[in-house]
Amino acid sequence: QVQLVESGGGLVQAGGSLRLSCAASGRSFSGYVMGWFRQHPGKEREFVAEVNWSGGSTAYAGSVKGRFTISRDNAKNTVYLQMNSLNPEDTAIYCCAARASGGNYRYWGQGTQVTVSS
Fold first, then answer.
1. CA-closest candidate to residue 86, choices 8, 9, 14
2. Gap between the Cα atoms of 89 and 112, Å rounded
3. How far apart (Å, rounded) are the C-alpha atoms in residues 32 and 36?
4. Is 114 in contact with 48 (CB distance < 8 Å)?
5. What is the pLDDT of residues 50-72, one digit of tens each?
């Protein structure tokens, strides 16, 4: 069982930056692939980024590639999402999630609101 709690959301102007954090508790954090997802108002949840257990392999959605960076600190049981060059289309609730390698995302946080003003 893994519990996930996000923080770091807020209101930022277009062009600004935010760093989201996701603190994990429970067992074997370092064994999980960690991901960030977001949900725009009235839309389906979408994949943003993920990082493998070591942090050595990452993947990004095309809409955020080059602007967002996912990373993890296994010693702190925390995964981060650095978001730069934010635009109003990035406004959404951002959630972190965990999955076993080769599996589906199984554990989800409650999410943190990110609002980008124009």
1. 14
2. 16
3. 13
4. no
5. 999 998 999 999 999 999 999 99
